[in-house]
Amino acid sequence: MNPAVFSERGLFVCFEGGEGAGKSTQSRLLRDWLVERGETVLLTFEPGDTAVGKELRRIVLDPATGELSDRTEALLYAADKAEHVDHVVLPALARGEVVITDRYVDSTLAYQGAGRTLDVAEVEAVARWATADLRPHLTVVLDLEPETGLGRFEERDRIEGQSMEFHQRVRQGFLDLAAADPDHYLVLDARAPVGAIADAIRARVTLLLEQS
Ligand code: Z5A
Fold it and tell me: Measuring from atom 52 of ligand 1, which residue has the nearest CA?
């Protein structure tokens, strides 16, 4: 496989973590803060932020889909990533924008790899190929015990409806990824107040902006 690609233009920040950890809340707050500072920001998400991705999202998350082969699920998420990177993320980075995405490759390593117990190296090979090996400059992991995160919602989609053991493996999967590459990760306790989490993220992103 080719070496990891860190875009030389723009800034690429990802939010990861389990359900209800506050990714959408924090990605919006970061977007608003960066816009106030005069940055051009694209806030996006996986799965589903392209026309084809919308269809793929429906298939993977609708409980009506029922059982899917684990490899089918991994390939559907990979297809969503390929569309997302080629048509949304890379063009915005090429324009020099800040791209913030709510979930990216680590989600498939955690959910389809650690969660479904597919071979993580095999899932990673597919996901890296799908994303042209584009890596984020920073991944923010919002860490929360699954009982609390799932308790923040009433309805369950196909993935949320998995067992508590599955969600525990997913949580550990994110923590293992962060521990293996601390320079590119920020792990935060998602039980903290929203404002305190936002401040910690801003401090780290400020450093990145100063370096870029
Ligand atoms: N998935 C996968 O398997 N493989 C992949 O490659 C990818 C994804 C990309 C996408 O779901 C699903 O697809 C996901 C992984 C899987 N699993 N599931 N299900 P989604 O996009 O529909 O949802 P999500 O990404 O899991 O996000 P979420 O569940 O909507 O939660 P969130 O964005 O992390 O949290 P939030 O909406 O910002 O906050 C949730 C609630 O908590 C809300 O009421 C907030 O006001 C509250 N909140 C937020 N922060 C706090 C704090 N700090 N304290 C207290 N309350 C808070």
Answer: 194
